[in-house]
Structure formats: C-alpha cells, structure tokens
Amino acid sequence: MTGVWIVLEQREGSIGRISWEALAAGQQLAAQLNLTANAVLIGSQTESLAAEVAARASGKVVRVEHPLLAAYTADGFSLALEQFFRADAPDYVVFPHTYQVRDYAPALAARLGQVLIGDVTGIGEGPVFTRQLLQGRLNGSYRHPGSGPCFISVQSGAFRAEPVAPDAAEVSVFTPVLDAAQIRTKPGTPFRDSAQTVDLGSASLIVSVGRGIKDAENLPLVQDLATALGAELAASRPICDNGWLPMERQVGSSGQTVSPKLYVAVGISGAIQHLVGMKGSQCVVAINKDPDAPIFEVADYGIVGDLFDVVPALTEAVKAAKQ
Amino acid sequence: MKIIVAIKQVPERDAQVRINAAGKWIEETDLQWAMNESDAYALEEALQLKEKGGGEVVVVSAGPERVGSTIREALAKGADRAIHIDCDDLAQRDALSVARLLAEAIKPESPDLVLTGLQSDDLGYGQTGVILAALLELPHASLLLHVEQTSTGLHVKRELEEGWFQNIELPTPAVLTIQSGGSKLRYATLMGIKRAKTKEVRRVTPAELGVPPSAVVVLDRIAQPQKQKSTQILPGSPKEAAAALVEKLKFEVRVL
Ligand SMILES: Cc1cc2nc3c(=O)[nH]c(=O)nc-3n(C[C@H](O)[C@H](O)[C@H](O)COP(=O)(O)OP(=O)(O)OC[C@H]3O[C@@H](n4cnc5c(N)ncnc54)[C@H](O)[C@@H]3O)c2cc1C
Ligand SMILES: Cc1cc2nc3c(=O)[nH]c(=O)nc-3n(C[C@H](O)[C@H](O)[C@H](O)COP(=O)(O)OP(=O)(O)OC[C@H]3O[C@@H](n4cnc5c(N)ncnc54)[C@H](O)[C@@H]3O)c2cc1C
C-alpha cells in the first residue's frame, strides 16, 4: 500500500477546510517524492463524503468503516487505523492538526513504533518538516531517518487547500475488527458553555491584552486605551485562564475569531493559537518589549518597548487626536 | 486515589533564548527554568482530587540535576513525594523514548491516575501523555479542563475547538492530559516550602529503567523564523512612537 496516505477528518457530515489543506499538503509531498497520494475517511457512514473526496483526490480513497466508529473515540480510531496501516505499511501518513488528531494520532503512531511530527508548517526537500518551537519564537527542522511509516500533522492555514492533481479516485472499504469492549471511553455530545454576551466577532476596533500586563491590577491601563479608541477589550488565553477577564473575551483557537479593522496586541507574544483567532484583522498593531516576539511577524505597525510606558502615552495621544 | 503527575522543566517564559553554536538547540548555560505551564495545572488538578477524595500525589520528572528545583516546587505546593529520572540524554530522545522512560518509572507505582500537561512550552509536541497511555495500555482523554471522580471512574470535561466542550466518562486507571485554565493555581506556602525539604525524592536512571535513548524522528536544525510581513516599527521615545502611531491610525488605517 506504499505511498502517502492522508487521513481526513469529518465533523457533522462535512469535511473541514483544514482537512482539505492536509490533502493538498499530502499531495505536494507525494509529488515531491514521486509517490501516490491516497485518502482515508474514518467513520460509520462515509459514502457520500468519500464521493466528495474522490472528486478532489487522485490515487485511492479508502473508507475505514465500522458502526463503532460513528462517534469519535481515541480507542476506536487508533485501533481501526492501526489495523489499516498494519495491513500494508504506508510511507507517509498526513493528518490535519486538529484537537481530534492530537487526541489519537500520537497513540496510533506509538503503537506502530513511530512518532508523529506534529503541527507542521512547511515541507522541504528531503523531506524535511518544519514546525514551531518555543511558542513560535523558533522554527525546527525535523527528519524521519528511521524505517516504517512517517506520521505528520499539518497546521491549520499552513498549506493552501488546492488539490494538485484531481483525478477521480477509486473508492474502497476497509472493515476493521472492533469489539465494543475495546472502546474504553464514553464520549458525550459536544456543547457550548453559557450564551456569550460579548460578540467580539463583529467589533471593528479591538485592544487585546496578554501576559505582558503582569497583574490584574494593571488592566485599567489597557482598558483606558480601549475606551479612548472606542474599542472592545479582548485578551490572550492566560489572562482568561487566570480569571482576570471572562473567557468570552479570549481570542484564538479555543476562543473567538475576530476580524476588526484594527487589532492592537499589547504584551501578547503571538503564539499560533492566538494568531489563528486574529490574523483576519485588517491592521495589526503590536506593542511588545521583545523585538523578536512572533507577533511582529503578523503586525503592520510595531512599537518595541515597555507597555507600561507606551500604552499611557498612546492613550494620551489618541485622546488628544480625538479632541 | 494514587495520582502520578508528570512535570517537565522548561525555559522560563521571558528568558532570552539564543541558538547554540551547533544550530541544533538553544544555549542552555544562562537560562532560567520553570515548571511547564500546563503541568502546573495538572498538579493543581491532582492536589484538588486528593483534597476531595484522599490518596497520594507523586510527581515524576525526567531531566538533569537542574529539574530538582522544579520537583521541589511541586512538593512545596503539596505533592507527597517525587521520582526524578536523572538523565542528561534527553536531546537524543524523541517523544516516544521520553514516554518510555516515564512509563517504566510509573509502572511499578500502579497508580489510579496519571496526569500530564497537555503540551510543553518549549518543544511543544503535545504528545507525551497520549503516548504514555498507549505504552501503559490505559484509556486516556486529552485537553481536559476538569476532572471528577465518580463511583464508576472519571467524569472529565474536554476542550474542543472554538469554545466547544465535551464530557467524557472513563474508567480508572487512566491517563489524562490537562489544559491550562481549568482551576486557579495555588502558591506554595512558607510551610509548604519548609516541608518540601523533608519529602522523598527518589532518583532512578534510564539504565535502571532499561530505556536507552532512541529517536525515530530527529530535530536537525533550529532557526529564527522568517518574517512574512514587513512590520513598520515606529521608533523613538514612547511619546514619539505613540504620536507616530496615531498619525498612521488617523490617515492610513482611518480609524480615528
Ligand atoms: C490547545 C491550545 C489552545 C490554545 N488556545 C489559545 C487561544 O484561544 N488564545 C490564546 O491567546 N492562546 C491560546 N493558547 C495558548 C498559547 O499557546 C499561548 O500560550 C498564549 O497565547 C500566550 O499568551 P501571551 O502572548 O499573552 O503570553 P506570553 O506568551 O507569555 O507573552 C507575553 C508577551 O508579553 C511581552 N511582555 C512582557 N512584559 C512586557 C512589557 N512590560 N511590555 C511589553 N511587552 C511585554 C513578552 O515579550 C511576551 O512576548 C492555546 C494553547 C493550546 C496548547
Ligand atoms: C535538542 C533537544 C533538547 C531537548 N531538551 C530537553 C529538555 O531539556 N528536557 C526534556 O524533558 N526533554 C528534552 N528533549 C527531549 C524530548 O524530545 C522532549 O522533551 C520530549 O520528546 C517530550 O516532548 P515535549 O517536550 O514536546 O513534550 P509534550 O509532549 O508537549 O509534553 C506533554 C507533557 O508530557 C510531560 N512531559 C514531557 N516531558 C517530560 C519530562 N521530561 N519529564 C516529565 N514529564 C514530561 C509533561 O506533563 C508535559 O506537559 C530535548 C530534545 C532535543 C532534540
């Protein structure tokens, strides 16, 4: 079965953008290495989805199907895919780096004596896989010199979701041998917490504060800037984790996605989980004392300095300009 | 319950990092070190479970001599004892090899629960806990904000993307990876710091555990990321920079 195998993720009967990106990444990798690119769909009723995939894929499309795979469980998915990939070892397996993949792919790889190269942002000659280290402050290049399949997962937004060579693929079914007793966890239905009262998604101006603020006591400093600008106040995760601001003001992969005209990031380092929530902003301003902070990679304007000096000065300047 | 918490020592968040001469890792000599953030939440969860249901909290950490300070911090916060896997060969190990070390140290303890952080702040693989579950052949759940002991096992709250959550039931023993923010972290008290000095820290070596270093994936090179966007840095004093930014906001971004 050699070649590149891309494992697509479905949610509520549809395939998300990040899975199409993973497909494109896998197809690029296959083209680079002169291998076939094949797709895997896992679940219990994937027939129509498989047809959709087949229209965008080349190589084979395999439906790993079993009634016990209807709801996602780490046990079910890793057992089923282990059987599938043991049947005939692939060269590469490519996943989208989603919460679900984080939950089972490392165990699947371990069962096969492998290690997932996770959250990959680029694939170079070799192949060499790039991923971020130290929350985006550095990049690392990884190789898989060992034998056996190489497992990678790709970061959301890192690859463009364009199939390289769409060519109606043939669809087949693989039925794993699963027993209900092998599935040890009982998952509940996903839910959202209490209704949100702040809709940052429609805000046109946002001032967002990060751990650089050091203490809840210092928040008024940023609140004053937000008020002067007429902006909503938002935050990075640690601020909400500490309970300094409510979770509904959190921007990022586990919070809200925003796309204001202006996003002012104050004392925020710019970890990928934060960036995915705000990179649609029209103009990004970063205030940070570290000139190498990753937030400057996405900022239009930057002020390198101590926020405790810069923010009050900016608040005054905004007030003066508005008079 | 007997709860094991895996804790990793990582560079202090605000530490200045420099790429080492070989271009393979960061210069470690002058670094400050701290407890990995999500591990602090895992420890907190363990301490709260013990406060509610009794039992023991045992910390395990793999690393050189220096991780002793992070182990002491965990003991000062209330962990009962610790296992220090004393090794300086971590750079030759991938996540599977590190998980094997942890698994071999944990097995003889026969815990009811193993907690890890969700992801390290430095290498950030976000895998060690899940691999550990596979090696120990235990059920697992990851990215958890809340853990509750029930009559049949565990009830946990898992974070999903974009503000969604999911509850999961699972039996014990189990391995859980903990996300930050589920509860408020405690500080070590003076009394706790004093007591920590008398708590047991057992040292074991990779050789004693029978886990030599190995790696199927290799970190070849590290580098500064290339900028994708040309940021216009506004120079000068805070006042000058602020004035320059206001000009931009007024005439170019047109939001003032
Ligand atoms: C599964 C998962 C989901 C996540 N979801 C989210 C999410 O939805 N949203 C989110 O934000 N994060 C999320 N995170 C966390 C994310 O990885 C980062 O840890 C977080 O974004 C860091 O927040 P920060 O930038 O405020 O803090 P830090 O990374 O600590 O950065 C603080 C910054 O402040 C600067 N600073 C310090 N002092 C000063 C000063 N005096 N003046 C100026 N600058 C100063 C520092 O140079 C630094 O750059 C998630 C992580 C995981 C693993
Ligand atoms: C150049 C280089 C330098 C390295 N330096 C170190 C180092 O200084 N320290 C180090 O631990 N490893 C080091 N490693 C080894 C190793 O690759 C990773 O630490 C290991 O694979 C775990 O991955 P991670 O840190 O991304 O953890 P993740 O998979 O992100 O960690 C998840 C959780 O696993 C637990 N965990 C992870 N590592 C440990 C540990 N050592 N002890 C106890 N619990 C742990 C924690 O609860 C953590 O929150 C190095 C590797 C290289 C290539």
Count, helices of chain A: 8
Largest sheet of chain A: 9 strands, mixed
Instruction: Going across the biggest sheet of chain B, name each strand in turn.
Output: 9-8-7-10-6-1-4-5-11
CATH superfamily of the largest domain in chain A: HUPs
Description:
- The complex is a heterodimer of chains A (323) and B (256).
- Chain A is of the alpha/beta class.
- The model of chain A has no long low-confidence stretch (mean pLDDT 94).
- Chain A has a 9-stranded mixed sheet, with helices on both faces.
- Chain A is built from 8 helices and 18 strands.
- Chain A is elongated and about 70 Å long.
- Chain A folds into 2 domains: 4-182, 3-Layer(aba) Sandwich (Rossmann fold), CATH 3.40.50.620; 200-322, TPP-binding domain (Rossmann fold, 3-Layer(aba) Sandwich), CATH 3.40.50.
- Chain B has a 9-stranded mixed sheet, with helices on both faces. A two-stranded antiparallel ribbon of chain B has the order 2-3.
- Chain B contains 7 helices and 13 strands.
- The radius of gyration of chain B is 21 Å and the shape is globular.
- In chain B, 29% of the residues lie in helices and 27% in strands.
- The termini of chain B are far apart.
- In chain B, helix 3 packs across helix 4.
- The mean pLDDT of chain B is 96.
- Chain B has 256 residues and is of the alpha/beta class.
- Chain B has helices spanning 37-53, 68-77, 95-106, 128-136, 190-196, 206-209, 238-251, and strands at 2-6, 9-11, 33-35, 56-63, 81-86, 113-117, 140-149, 154-159, 164-170, 174-178, 201-204, 218-223, 232-233.
- Chain B has 2 domains: 2-209, HUPs (Rossmann fold, 3-Layer(aba) Sandwich); 232-256, no CATH class.
- The longest helix of chain B is centred in the first third of the chain and has 17 residues, at 37-53.
- Classes of the chains: A alpha/beta (323), B alpha/beta (256).
- Chains A and B meet through helix 3, helix 4, strand 7, strand 8 and strand 9 of A and helix 3, helix 4, strand 7, strand 9 and strand 12 of B.
- The site of one flavin-adenine dinucleotide has 31 residues of chain B, from helix 1, strand 4, helix 3, strand 6 and helix 4.
